[in-house]
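quick one if you have a minute, typing this from the bus. below you get a single protein, a line of residues and a line of whole numbers that encode the local backbone shape. could you go over both lines and see whether the tokens make sense for that sequence. anything you notice is useful, everything is just below.
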Amino acid sequence: MLSPEILSNKRILLTGAARGLGRDFAAAIAHAGAHVVMADILTNQVQHEAAQLAAQGLKVSAVSMDISQKQSIQQAVEVAVQRLGGLDGLVNCAALATGVGGVGMQQHDEALWDRVMTVNVKGTWLVSQACVPHLQASGQGKIVNIASDTALWGAPKLLAYVASKGALIAMTRAMASELGEYNICVNTVSPGLTLVEATQYVPQQRHDLYVNGRAIQRQQHPEDVNGTVLYLLSEMSSFVTGQNIPVNGGFVFN
């Protein structure tokens, strides 16, 4: 069992924190004892969510970040590091997931493809790049990239999203190989279809496909993923790097 203070005094930056999985991760990480800076392009919403957690006595604040813009990333990371006094972990949860599916590859819009790749792949790289010097200084840095199990089974009519999440898994392995010399662990978590805002428009048929195909046949909730993220941010996983961990109730195996 993970200790309730498994991340005591760890300094964590979390992107995509205004809603969905990111919002739930922020609460779980803060409850585990960490100091958390929640980053998101949805400035008002992420500030509201951070204030809600801070009102509970948790060590949480918010910063505005557009991960498609390098300058915005650099400014936000600088603010976060100043507040935290350094950086021990980064969770790359920000992604474009709403309105990215529904058509086959022959009808896929090129502009949407570029947008998904810019946010989901390039953005993750740029945030990581900005954080690495600070993670290196901590002596035992952690990066957790949030992908998707759609990249493992090739979900249809979701080409750009699936490709971007597959790229994250591959990029994680390359980052782990490069950053190991600095004692920075880089891993991926690939959730299954989870009940959050971004999936409310997914057809019921797809939800049923997941539930019926899982070894554990029920809907997936954000809290199902929290433990894996906490483990990968903690010192318990200090010899785990370059891995992809699906969290999907056994719908697909890695």
Remarks:
- The chain has a mean pLDDT of 93.
- Residues 11-245 form a domain with the Rossmann fold fold (CATH 3.40.50.720).
